[in-house]
Design a protein that fits this description.
heterodimer, A: alpha+beta, Flavocytochrome C3, Chain A, domain 1, five-stranded parallel beta sheet, five-stranded antiparallel beta sheet, 19 strands, globular, B: alpha+beta, Ubiquitin-like (UB roll), Fumarate Reductase Iron-sulfur Protein, Chain B, domain 2, 2 domains, 13% strand
């Protein structure tokens, strides 16, 4: 039975976190070493949590499927990290960062969580600087900032186009220090395939050793899942090749509610698809929209060379429709606008891409200044496309990038399974229906460094969970289930490869559960995904054996989960009969094509309880707004 | 972006385990010039799986040249001949119609082959654990702007910090030295004020861990710098050597 108690503390919004920290139970330093914590995933949230829990004195076991904890996909974030430092003296504040985030999420996130995120944002920057993260600086030696979509202040801290890398290496360095000190035991090349629940509480995990194929059990008094998002459900996305939903999904099947699965972000500035052999889409940092102007030819069937198209024949559609935010309109609006332009046939050469043009920026501040700001992004673009963006406008198109949905968590980041905590992109909590740029790094580190270490301590202090031996029946049952699943996959011996079926799933989802959705399409796609899942379990071909290195088997397990999750995304999108943020229902828009929310009926979090594949029960957490007034999001 | 596929002969290293003897296996590929070399591998593996054959084991993840997971030796060059790019950023347009390409794993004593093109690079993590950090606990940091760092220093530190930990420097070096890798981390902290308290202890510990992990000595051939996908400069090794020398004097209380 699922109980969605958000456990939001009493008091004024700005005092909730402070009060809560005071009211939380503490664990005496000498007793901390009696508590074991498992952390799955070593990206910003996971590495941050593992390192900090280790510093506090808990015994931590950290797991990654990579060969090194430094390789998590947090590393690929380019643009930056937000914080409410107001170093630019441009009117920023904790409240403004909170408000921008909740407005950017189209009023579908929990006020208290989002406010806490803004509150701890400043500590994150201090923390990272102390770790030696080489953020960009002004000549006087102070930290530099840039602007990002959805905000009118300059609050984004950055390290060239490699901010995620530098922040992750910072967290990795703190984690390494704890490994050396012996408080964190690091397990590489292990994939979590089940969570073990004993008497209703999370007590451990089942993992597969990706080198030997051995299935191992690990026990602890609390488990943290920080395994990222599920954009790879679309097959083509900006996520890393191995990014997947399996850890979160297996927890869901053991009783953790999955929240808002239909909130998936399609990022506006990615490289267009090059052809059928494509395995992954590449993101260009959204910071490019600070100086690049987005446009399409005004004329369908435009044949002239791009630089020969005169101003009057260009449509700078974001600047035209959203004069105050212009090219910095939020991601969902920018992406959908690009889709519509291409649907109208105005895409570059009639295809699916739009221009991102730096000619004016180069005229205004000069090529060296543009190079200073975006040099490595321009190089990357030229390397991939063999076109020089200093001379010819870039071509971009939206791509699946981030998932706001995830495992449901309360204010303590605890899922509906006591003792199972979820951090970073894997949870649903802070971004509502749309995430603003430079907020993912902020959330990952907030959860890892400043929230989970407190709330897990509170769980230990108040619940005093017992240790459970890995020889127990529940661990054995989980191992058996993992082995049975591997054996089943290896025995089907059908005709289609894992990738063949994954591509089919991706095509279905991007078409019907992508940038825009409608009732008819969603109903159709639910049946099609269900059929495809059937096809997978009867016709997939997985080679090799399970007691061995077997990447084919690894992918098969992940795709099996995507086939269930993909259906839930469509089910959720169908239930949410309104448009909000990244979830755009064709039926609910103004004459100008703007989203229409329905606060009366849909100001809730959808939390889905798993019953069997293809069958879920919906629970609703009503969102209560004490501080902000629900407004129509306008970026005009 | 439709252009004709290019046809290639691939000689790919297959090896069952660290102890097994490996050999080159030949494959034919017809691939879009816009595909990356790893997308070509994806297609090749998809075909092998369809035929019920074991796919070629290779590692990759972000496919954007930043995670450091991928690493193939292509025609004798770690990450291929093109400068300052990782394997995943190599596009098929850089090959000619009919060309034969040799693809091997990173080879070094400290990087045993696990299967085919996949190697074990754990030694790199052990070096980082020996001292690649500043010792302070979460929550104890002063305000970020309390530490002023010149733009130039921050930029130099970032030049070093950009290392992606792929191990190409090791594969490029005739001695299998990881000194470029070690020096990048040592330099990042040696340049920044935050790294000063542990500066000399750090260089000692990291160099010792390097030597104990089976990596060889640096003899200044510069092969590492030439193959580094991030263009990490050899001057970092000079900076590290200077610090190492000073740290030895400090240890002897000179």
């Amino acid at each position: 039975m699922i109980n969605l108690d958000s456990k939001v503390p009493e008091g004024n919004l700005s005092e909730k976190w402070t009060n809560h920290k005071f009211n939380m139970k503490l664990v005496n330093p000498a007793n901390k070493r009696k508590f074991d914590v498992i952390v799955v995933g070593t990206g910003l949230a996971g590495a941050g949590a593992a390192a900090t829990l280790g510093e506090l004195g808990y015994k931590v076991k950290a797991f990654t499927y990579h060969d090194s904890s430094r390789r998590a996909h947090s590393i690929a974030a380019q643009g930056g990290i937000n914080a409410a430092k107001d170093y630019q003296n441009d009117g920023d504040s904790v409240y403004r960062l909170f408000y921008d985030t909740i407005k950017g999420g189209d009023f579908r996130s929990r006020e208290a969580n989002t406010h806490r995120l803004a509150e701890v944002s400043n500590n994150i920057i201090d923390q990272c600087v102390a770790q030696g993260v080489p953020f960009a600086r002004e000549y006087g030696g102070t930290l530099a900032n840039r602007s990002f979509g959805g905000a009118q202040v300059s609050r984004t801290f950055y390290a060239r186009g490699e901010t995620g890398q530098q922040l992750l290496l910072g967290a990795y360095s703190s984690l390494n220090r704890q490994i050396k000190l012996g408080s964190v035991e690091m397990y590489h090349r292990r994939e979590m395939l089940d969570v073990v629940v004993v008497d209703g509480k999370a007590k451990g995990i089942t993992v597969r050793n990706l080198i030997t194929g051995e299935v191992e059990s690990h026990s602890a008094q609390a488990v943290v899942i920080a395994t990222g998002g599920y954009s790879n459900v679309f097959f083509l996305s900006t996520s890393a090749m191995m990014s997947n939903a399996t850890a979160a999904w297996r927890a869901h099947k053991r009783g953790a509610a999955f929240a808002n699965p239909c909130y998936t972000q399609i990022h506006p500035t990615c490289l267009p698809q090059h052809g059928e052999g494509q395995s992954k889409l590449v993101l260009m940092s959204e910071s490019l929209r600070n100086d690049g102007r987005i446009w399409v030819p005004n004329i369908v069937g435009e044949k002239r060379d791009v630089n020969a198209i005169p101003e009057e024949d260009r449509d700078y559609y974001l600047e035209r429709r959203y004069p105050s935010f212009g090219n910095l309109a939020p991601r969902d609006i920018s992406s959908r606008s690009a889709k519509y332009a291409c649907d109208e046939g105005k895409g570059v050469n009639g295809g699916r891409s739009v221009y991102l043009d730096f000619a004016d920026a180069i005229k205004r501040i000069g090529e060296p200044a543009v190079r200073e700001k975006y040099g490595n992004l321009f190089e990357m673009y030229e390397n991939i496309t063999a076109e020089n963006p200093y001379k010819v406008p870039m071509q971009i198109y939206p791509a699946p990038h981030y998932t706001m949905g995830g495992l449901w968590v309360d204010y303590n980041l605890q899922s509906t399974i006591p003792g199972l905590f979820v951090g970073g992109e894997a949870n649903f909590s802070d971004h509502g229906a749309n995430r603003l740029g430079a907020s993912a790094l902020m959330q990952g580190l907030a959860d890892g460094y400043f929230v989970l270490p407190y709330s897990i301590g509170n769980y230990f202090g108040s619940e005093k969970p017992e240790k459970v031996d890995v020889k127990g029946a529940e661990f054995k049952a989980a191992e058996d289930s993992v082995n049975a699943s591997s054996n089943k996959l290896l025995s089907i011996n059908g005709k289609q490869t894992v990738d063949d079926i994954h591509r089919k799933l991706g095509d279905l989802l991007i078409d019907k559960v992508g940038m825009s959705r409608d009732e008819k399409g969603l109903k159709e796609v639910i049946t099609k995904i269900s059929n495809l899942r059937e096809e997978f379990w009867t016709d997939v071909k997985v080679v090799g054996k399970s007691e061995d290195i077997n990447m084919n088997l690894e992918r098969a397990g992940r795709v099996a989960d995507f086939l269930e999750l993909g259906e839930l995304m469509a089910v959720d999108a169908l239930d949410r009969d309104e448009s909000c943020g990244a979830h755009f229902r064709e039926e609910h828009q103004t004459d100008e094509g703007e989203a229409i929310r329905n606060d009366e009926e849909y100001a809730y979090v959808s939390a889905w309880e798993f019953e069997e594949p293809g069958k879920w029960k919906l629970h609703k957490e009503n969102l209560e707004f004490e501080s902000v007034k629900l407004a129509t999001r306008s970026y005009k | 972006m439709k252009e004709q596929n290019i046809n290639l002969t691939l000689k790919i290293w297959r090896q069952e385990s660290a102890k097994a003897k490996g050999n080159f296996e030949e494959f034919k590929a017809s691939v879009s010039p816009h595909s990356s070399i790893l997308e070509m591998f994806d297609e090749l593996n998809n075909n092998l799986e369809k035929e019920g054959k074991d796919p070629i084991v290779f590692e990759s993840d972000c496919r954007e040249g930043i995670c450091g997971t991928c690493g193939l030796v292509i025609n004798g060059h770690p990450h291929g001949e093109k400068k300052k790019t990782a394997t995943c950023q190599m596009h098929m347009r850089s090959f000619k119609e009919g060309e034969t390409i040799y693809i091997e794993p990173f080879r070094a004593k400290a990087f045993p082959v696990l299967r085919d093109l996949m190697v074990d690079r754990e030694g790199l993590d052990i070096i980082q654990q020996a001292g690649g950090y500043t010792s302070f606990n979460t929550g104890s940091a002063p305000d970020a702007n309390a530490i002023l760092i010149s733009k130039e220093t921050a930029s130099l530190a970032l030049d070093a910090a950009e290392c992606i930990g792929c191990g190409a420097c090791v594969a490029a070096c005739k001695n299998s030295s990881a000194m470029l890798f070690v020096s990048a981390k040592v330099s990042q902290f040696a340049l920044l004020p935050q790294g000063q308290p542990e500066r000399y202890e750090r260089v000692q510990n990291m160099v010792i861990a390097h030597d104990e992990s089976g990596f060889g000595s640096c003899t200044n051939t510069y092969a590492c710098e030439a193959e580094c996908p991030k263009g990490i400069s050899i001057s970092n090794i000079a900076r590290m050597n200077r610090d190492y020398f000073v740290s030895n004097l400090k240890l002897q209380n000179v």
